[in-house]
Amino acid sequence: MSRLQAAIREIYAMEEQARKDTWPNRLHPLAKLIVTFSYIAVTASFHKYDLAGLLSMCLYPLVVFAAGDLPFGRCLKRIWAFLPALLLVGIWNPFWDRVPVALTGQLSVPGGVLSMVSLMWKGVFAVLAAYLLLVTTGMDKICGAFRMAHVPAALVTVILFTYRYAVLLLREALETMQAYSLRAPGQKGVHYRAWGSMAGQLLLRTMDRAARVYESMCLRGYAASGGNGEAWKDVFFQGRYERMDLASFLWLAVWTALFFFLRLFPLFRIVGSLVLSG
After folding, report:
1. What is the residue extent of each domain of the chain?
2. Which of 2, 86, 172, 212 could covalently link to 123 via disulfide, CB atoms 3.0 to 4.6 Å apart?
3. How large is the C-alpha radius of gyration of the chain?
């Protein structure tokens, strides 16, 4: 299986996971959206040397994985793709920050090492939270939650269409690569002389396909602007969701309160001090 086929299959797998009848999937999308943003904000607010407090934020992903019956191995594969970028951002910290920071007793490490590890963990937790939101909610419901939070319809429509057209672009790229491989059997990859023409062909094919999709949407009642000049008429998300139920409200209240509690009182540090003192 090629990388393009694997990417298309992964997108469909996430959509299929979001349609399953699990307890996290049944929660209100707006509650899960607020919890995710609160989690990312609290995680990013930890001090760059506070690894003990930061590691306590792993509680939320573990609970969601257990409650939603999610494949942990597949999620690790998605996070693994972001690790080089996170490492590239934080790898310079040990060279700039050489002040020793005491860990326990006589053990101390350079502050740059702690800040690098902290930055990587923050990135992993942020990517993990976004992934869990996507596989337990789905992009359509996430965009609906954005509209319920009064995010401008133009921005929400761009986000939704970008996500949908990503699959279209991958399909067109897969067909182009298959056609090229049939015309160049035995050749590994694409010759550099064909890069420009293939990119141009791919752009033209996707633009033509997108134009046909847009015409089909207009025939079914979609309008990018209202008849009275009102821009970006919101036709997808009006009245789509009911009010938040009790379970969703409790999910929102409990997790946001727990995030701020873990921010003020690092659980791992308190437990570690009790164990060492005992």
Report:
1. 17-151+244-268, 153-222
2. 86
3. 23
Structure tokens at 210: 């997108």
Spatial contact of 176 and 156, defined as CB atoms under 8 Å apart: no
- Other C-beta atoms closer than 10 Å to the C-beta of 237 total 20
If DSSP codes are grouped into helix, strand and coil, which group holds residue 222?
A: coil
Q: Whole-prediction pTM value?
A: 0.79
For residues 116 and 93, the answer to whether their CB atoms sit within 8 Å is: yes
Torsion angle, alpha carbons of 37, 39, 45, 46, to 10: -160
For 259-275, the pLDDT digits (tens) are: 988 888 777 666 656 65
CA nearest neighbour of 17 among 139, 126, 123, 129: 139
Rounded Cα gap, residues 179 and 54, in angstroms = 49
| DSSP structural state of residue 194 | G
